[in-house]
Input
Amino acid sequence: MKPIVLALAALVAPAALAADQPAVDPARVEATVKAAFRSAPPDWQPRLIPDETLKECSATDNSPTAAQFEAIQKREAATIRYPDDGNFVGDWKKGERLAQSGYGLRFTDYPPRNPNGGNCFACHQMTRQEVSYGTIGPSLLGYGKARGTAPEALKTVYEKIYNPHATFACSLMPRFGTNKVLTVEQIKDLVALLMDPASPVNQ
Amino acid sequence: MRRPLALLAAGTLAALALAALPQTPSRAQDGETEKAIERYRQMLKDDPWSNPGLLDADRGEALWSRRRGPQNVSLEACDLGRGPGQVEGAFAELPRYFADADQVMDLETRLLWCMEKLQGFNRSDLLKRPHPAGGQPVKELGAIATWVASKSGGAKFAAPLGHPKEKDAVALGQALFERRSGPFDFSCTTCHAEPGKRIRLQGLPHLANPDEARKVIGEWPAYRVSSTHVMTMQHRLYDCYWQMRMPELEFGSEVSVALVAYLVNKAAGGEITAPAIKR
Output
């Protein structure tokens, strides 16, 4: 039976692979990863396994088909949990510290000595003072000034940080809320950093 | 006789360059760091023998020919692909398929194999702490790799693709390069699949692009100024997975080899300049 199954697998292999290269069986990729990280403790095992969304994003090199795009956004939006009190804005000063910090979840960060950071400056320009910023994401300078403080605008930013795929399937940005990197309170502090008129982002 | 003297000077040069580096290489000071490293690179260009990585290559050369391990033999019977003991040009043709091991191996994995099979070292001991901490010298295997790579200096990457397992390693490497997982949802492509991007102020080479891959892949193993030691390619990948919030990548694993095969394939035709100087 096996050759037939393999032949079928080859037929549905992702088209992303260059024509001159043999397709790689996804199951084998997963087994290879498992073996290469076999020292990982049991509670780290989930890190090795991509969920449905990541699988689709990887297989299409982050260019999902229109149908996948819709399905991913719907699925990811359903994971967003909102603040109990309906308030999306925390303290921008705490938010700025979180945006600076890349601490957390690396194998040298255990046992935890600090709260996890968001490492936003790694990818985004955010304030004029901080010149050491990355460029993987767009500049967020003046983000709130351009969008105002209406409840809908605040909610949209909260959702973006919680799960960027909800509005942009296969975004390169981490799903900070869904993946439990940041807490609801921390995300509120980051919303404040981006949206509070007093925040350095909007000066 | 010029060389040993110049190597003594290397330590002093390194110390000078580091004194010029700010202690916390973040924020606005990063620009200064970049400038200090550029000055240091220039000093090294003016006097190539002052590259501290050459000290490790020398150490590697001595380790290669010394009788070591439970079997008390040297590595001179180790076949890096061009026949036992043939080191010159071998690195330029790796990774490749080795019939004795029935698998594709990159330089570091092959050295691991020779140290285990010929010298009788215990594999799990060699796997325990394969990479140096910041400020520590590269491990013995890494020093040998540095020397072997330097013996392909000036040659161009030409890893063979004649064996099906060699082609397969490159394809597997591509799948791994694009594979996202972990709490930050990262893949190698998050950081290395577009030109001109950077994290903070560190430039990110677009490694899926042959022009950019050819510029940097041949520099490894490289002397890394910010951690003051030689870093091998497998150490570089281990460190990128650390940033990706993944567990510790096992040295000599199929993932390491496949990624190296993919990167070297992208860099085909690129010149080998190892050990070069990195940030």
Notes: Chain B is about 45% helix and 10% strand. The CA atoms of residues 45 and 51 of chain B lie 9 Å apart. Chain B has one domain: 8-20+29-278. Chain B touches chain A through 50 residues (CB under 8 Å).
